Amino acid sequence: MLPFTVNFKVSARTLTGALNAHNKAAVDWGWQGLIAYGCHSLVVVIDSNTAQTLQVLEKHKADVVKVKWARENYHHNIGSPYSLRLASADVNGKIIVWDVAAGVAQCEIQEHAKPIQDVQWLWNQDASRDLLLAIHPPNYIVLWNADTGTKLWKKSYADNILSFSFDPFDPSHLTLLTSEGIVFISDFSPAKPPSGPGKKVYISSPHSSPAHNKLAAATGAKKALNKVKILITQEKPSAEFITLNDCLQLAYLPSKRNHMLLLYPREILILDLEVNQTVGVIAIERTGVPFLQVIPCFQRDGLFCLHENGCITLRVRRSYNSIFTTSNEEPDPDPVQELTYDLRSQCDAIRVTKTVRPFSMVCCPVNENAAALVVSDGRVMIWELKSAVCNRSSRNSSSGVSPLYSPVSFCGIPVGVLQNKLPDLSLDNMIGQSAIAGEEHPKGPVLQEVHLRFLLTGLLSGLPSPQFAIRMCPPLTTKNIKVYQPLLAVGIEWTSLTGFLSFATSTPNNMGLVRNELQLVDLPTGRSIAFRGERGNDESPIEMIKVSHLKQYLAVVFKDKPLELWDVRTCTILREMSKNFPAVTALEWSPSHNLKSLRKKQLATREAMARQTVVSDTELSVVESSVISLLQEAESKSELSQNISAREHFVFTDNDGQVYHLTVEGNSVKDSARIPPDGSMGSITCIAWKGDTLVLGDMDGNLNFWDLKGRVSRGIPTHRSWVRKIRFAPGKGNQKLIAMYSDGAEVWDTKEVQMVSSLRSGRNVTFRILDVDWCTSDKVILASDDGCIRVLEMSMKSTCFRMDEQELTEPVWCPYLLIPRASLALKAFLLHQPWNGQYSLDISHVDYPENEEIKNLLQEQLNSLSNDIKKLLLDPEFTLLQRCLLVSRLYGDESELHFWTVAAHYLHSSSPAAVGEAAPRDRVNNPLDICYDILCENAYFQKFQLERVNLQEVKRSTYDHTRKCTDQLLLLGQTDRAVQLLLETSADNQHYYCDSLKACLVTTVTSSGPSQSTIKLVATNMIANGKLAEGVQLLCLIDKAADACRYLQTYGEWNRAAWLAKVRLNSEECADVLKRWVDHLCSPQVNQKSKALLVLLSLGCFSSVAETLHSMRYFDRAALFVEACLKYGVIQVTEDTEKLISAIYADYARSLKNLGFKQGAVLFASKAGAAGSDLLKELESPKLERTEE
């Protein structure tokens, strides 16, 4: 017989339904690839690929308002493994930090009893990653250590704080959105609270500014209007100006430095913070659907926007070609004056009703090519972006939107012309960079135009909204073990394992009559029959339906109409009781029945059939099994036609509490006994019967236990209100019973007549119970008014489960669920392909002496990868660098992703092969994305800064703005433009004289010795007397930018110095400045070594990168990096470097040995030469012993 598995072990869990209004913003998509969202007081964790619920966390006593996954921006090793940490905050001001895999709360934080407005993990510290910043209303920000729950500092502000946003390029910059305006904090540090009140600016509402009335005016008018549009002012706007700060959201753009977006219902404003000025507006036409939320992207300058109809749109910045000329000629008379974001893709909207509306959206932080929408009815929709190459001819050129091109590189390595369509791994793999102004797109066959579209790849539906009844399907027995599936139905009675009856009544008319519907549904086929045929119009409403234990009969109880008895198998009515039949308050079928007499009847029928088909005994033995099965089928049909049925009994009570006992056999119904009411009981509301025990419950909360064999009854007052339902647990001899009251539930043991456990709404739980049932013989199931269904142990304590104990229907890729050693070993297995010369995703081929269970878990993880990714991992052409990048994406490892992106770019562009070929061309066409800011190539960085200053210049509206533009132009060396701006100063301005003299100075600066030394002396004095910016400007005028950088660094302006070095110095001088910055970043008081590594990579100092990695004990990254460097031939092999390389390999081999990953350890120990020889002996010695045995 083939073995078969049955999933009858139903683990404790919670099924969630519709959300609460407080849960609106409580959703987050972590780097770990999981989405968490709040559902009432629960936190639900789902997998983004398969849309399965992985965990439901229950500990909050109030509605959850925020959830945030911890960032993965650190180096992972056995001491700091991949772990699932999540912070959730509720309406009562409690923050809980969870270990999601184990389902336990690591730490609980409470400051005030008001709803938390916003929480965020700090991600930049190399030292600590346990810091959590929270807004406690009305106006406090508090920094917590989320590991221990200790408060590090607390600071209050003048206004109510609504939310905050960290500058992704500078962790010391924090911006608060308050009820009145915006507060900029520039000295945020984990060590101490920010000093002072921050720089406060007001937003005048965009609707009041004249620019709005004519958004689409002609260009000339538009130009004039744009000059008027100021948004951010230092003074408080006057009363008629400020309508209301209806700014919905504030966020920094992670794709370029010092840009911020403000979201209003009908527009998105892009601000340049250097000049506090709007440089771009995305507005919706009058008929368009307003915005709810926007998420800016990091990899490309794009925005995911959520609209009020649940539609998600992606807008990408338009690239302009040749906006301006780089030399000092007159610029183009009408340059484009906005950052424009074009709509590139949109998904379908949802049907918005009173109860169904979009709550919020999250975007995948690793790949930025998928968005998830959480809807108020508990649905989660996962939309993924797909790119499709389109042919040139079909393109409609009149659309006015510049085409999007596919990128010229894949995972950091430029792609060839003939490369087939690559998978859509992430946003930067799908669309190329927006060209910076002044660059023509290379006209080549490489560039393919692409279109983007959204595809719904995952949908998780919640339960229907509450007011439902639950009923577990018939219990597991030895007979049905092959087909059993634990199904739970809402509001019905089961007639078999796969069929059920459900009833519904319409709203009563003025006579109190309704239309009743009773449907019989067959689950495998979905066929549904009206069970009572034509009956059901204008009659008294159905109050309950009860199916007998053998699933033969059905009793239908009406409100003001006698009971009906039906035959379930033939859908015929057996009996409609007479008018004087008593009204039924509670009814229950007896579990005891005379199956024996049924068997006798069946045997008699069989004999009769055997007589009809005359077959001698000898022949019978050779009749084929098919014939026998045919006979059996005919037999069952004839039994039905002769209506052979077992006798069953039921009891019911009437309004006076009298108990009636009736017997049903075939189509006869006999009244067999009446028992007078028990004086201690009120009106009976429910009955339960199992074996020899009958239990009655009444309106006053009394339970009456009858022992039918011993003929004794015991009444027990529970002093709880009305008994709504009582139910026995399934399983032979299992005499447990669950009773439901209006304020909770209790489990009783009827043998001992004592209570096992109890649950009260308001006391131990926040929800009200609507219905109860038994899920299995030892688990109860509760439906509650928060729209959830909970499967609990018999103690009815709500628990979270361990994620690894879950039986999932589809495998999920999430290495975070493995034990730390295993997840790191799996990573090494993927990175160091091929093993023994072959590429394989079968871990059993590798010498990894771990127990079978762990190996199977690893294999399951590998099998759950998508086919696209498997194909890449098995492709011999896929280089080591690409593999490192892909694995860091699969693991959602933030620090590795950035490291390998920068490393791949610079290793590729500085390898001797690339330098030998058309390197300059390649570098121009494929620069490092501008989101890496200071790490980009100098030429590209300069172009970007020039474009930006031109945009600022077009947008300037006040003298202050003009002055800031002048300063930037002087630093960038654009002297002629700067002079023009200086001469614009009007005569009544107090700076008029100063600016005129400055203009003269700039035009007459010559390189004669005396004037240079004078200017240098003046500049030095200025800097010494605290006028740093002015002094630096003078030094730049006389081409002493290197000195200017040194002064800036002395005064702690490291970022500014790096910026100036990149735009003004040649590569050697620039490298000197940046190297000084690296030393500063590595110093113990700054401790930003991970940033220093990226700067070193951008300078091409590869051996110092390897050395730093080794000193930081990042052995895995160091070993992989050295391998990549050797492949590209960028490290000169000398004695010192050889020593370093073998030390790195030996240390890495040791760490692999600690993971138990033997084959990897042997591989690297043998590469390490002398340094690894001892380790190699140690690793190979057990092998020798084994062979000797």
From TrEMBL:
Involved in the Hedgehog (Hh) signaling pathway, is essential for normal ciliogenesis. Regulates the proteolytic processing of GLI3 and cooperates with the transcription factor EMX1 in the induction of downstream Hh pathway gene expression and gonadotropin-releasing hormone production. WDR11 complex facilitates the tethering of Adaptor protein-1 complex (AP-1)-derived vesicles. WDR11 complex acts together with TBC1D23 to facilitate the golgin-mediated capture of vesicles generated using AP-1. One of its GO terms (biological process) is vesicle tethering to Golgi. Keywords: Cell projection, Cytoplasm, Cytoplasmic vesicle, Cytoskeleton, Golgi apparatus, Nucleus, Phosphoprotein, Repeat, WD repeat. PANTHER family: WD REPEAT-CONTAINING PROTEIN 11. It is found in: Cytoplasm, Cytoskeleton, Cilium axoneme; Cytoplasm, Cytoskeleton, Cilium basal body; Cytoplasmic vesicle; Golgi apparatus, trans-Golgi network. The gene is WDR11. It comes from Panthera leo. Gene3D superfamilies: YVTN repeat-like/Quinoprotein amine dehydrogenase. This is WD repeat-containing protein 11. InterPro entries: Beta-prop_WDR11_1st, Beta-prop_WDR11_2nd, TPR_WDR11, WD40/YVTN_repeat-like_dom_sf, WD40_repeat_CS, WD40_repeat_dom_sf, WD40_rpt, WDR11.
